[in-house]
Each structure stands twice: as C-alpha cells, then as structure tokens.
Design a protein that fits this description.
It contains 7 helices and no strands. The protein has one domain. The mean pLDDT is about 80. By secondary structure, the chain is mainly alpha-helical. Helices cover about 80% and strands about 0% of the residues.
C-alpha cells in the first residue's frame, strides 16, 4: 500500500493537469505512470489510484464547467435563446456523451464548455464525468501495473543472461589456463 503522501501527490497531479484547459496528457497516462512509480502495488492501491485521479480530474473540469455555467448568465438574450434551443436537442444525450468523452483520450472542453453554457445539471455533469474518468484511470493503473511486471520480468531475464555470460567466461578462462587438466590431455596437431 502506498503512503498518504504518495496518494496526495497522485490526486494533486490529476487535479493540476486537468485544470489546464485544452492541454495535458490523458488520465490513462497519469494513472499508468503512477502505477509504475509505486512499483508492485496491490489491487486496492490500483483502484485508489484510479479513484484519486478521477476525483482530481472531475473537480478540475468542474471548475471549467462552473465558470462557463455562470458566464452564460452574461450572454445576450438572443444567444441564450439559441443555447436553450440547442440544449433541448442535446440534453437526452449529454450524460452518455460526457461519459464517452471523459472515458477516452478525446479532448473534454468541446463538450464541457457547451454543457456549462447550457446550464446542464451540475450533479449529472459531475457524475458522468467522474464515472468516465474513473473508467479510464483504473484501466490505466492496471495497464501500468502489467507494464511494471513485464519490465521487472525483462530486467530479471537480462540479469540472468548477464550472470550466465559471466559463468561462461569463467569456464572459458579455465580452458585457457596452461595448468588445466583439459590442456594437458589434449593432443598436439601432427601427433597421431
């Protein structure tokens, strides 16, 4: 199990990276990197990594959403009327669309900002976004753990091959010794 400080760093990384609009790596990559950094983590630690990254991402995008939510009140009446007309068409698909965008490496802002301007339900927004990020972050943590296991296995194989090579050299050096039994009993060329 990781320490509290490591968990706080994971949460702050997920929050900080997602606070930057239109930029930053996928949360899958953040979870992947966190799982590798923690080494041989158990299943509960991997799930906690996913939860913390998803929570950080959802809170950060929630800030983007709330800014656009309150900015929409300052739009002209004509623009608000157009947004409301579009909102009626989109509302039934908004939860699924937001989940899909959150659960994939696609950019979130093209969906987050219009939903905020349309004053989509904050509870539904947070739920869909959190569940999508939870899906991709937990998957990333498990993939990172498997990559760590694979790397550890390759590292062990390389170490064993190096040890085998060293042993072969030792054996080979014994054959080159002038006093070895092998050299005393070999036949010289030309003797028959």
């Amino acid at each position: 199990m990781a320490s509290i400080i490591e968990f706080v760093i994971i949460f702050l990384t997920g929050f900080g990276v997602n606070l930057i609009p239109f930029a930053g790596p996928s949360n899958l990559l953040i979870a992947y990197t966190a799982a590798i950094g923690l080494g041989n983590a158990d299943v509960s630690t991997l799930v906690i990594i996913g939860l913390l990254i998803a929570l950080g991402a959802a809170l950060a995008k929630g800030i983007h959403y709330m800014v656009t939510f309150f900015v929409s009140g300052h739009l002209s009446q004509k623009r608000q009327a157009r947004l409301n007309a579009d909102a009626n068409k989109i509302r039934k698909w908004a939860f699924a669309l937001l989940f899909l965008v959150a659960a994939t490496p696609l950019p979130d802002e093209p969906v987050v900002i219009p939903l905020g301007l349309m004053k989509y339900s904050p509870v539904k927004f947070f739920s869909a976004y959190f569940l999508g990020k939870l899906t991709i972050a937990v998957a990333g943590a498990f993939i990172g753990q498997e990559a760590n296991n694979l790397f550890s296995g390759c590292q062990q194989l390389i170490l064993r091959l190096a040890k085998l090579r060293t042993n072969v050299r030792r054996v080979d050096n014994c054959f080159d010794c002038p006093n070895s039994d092998y050299n005393r009993h070999t036949f010289k060329s030309g003797s028959g």
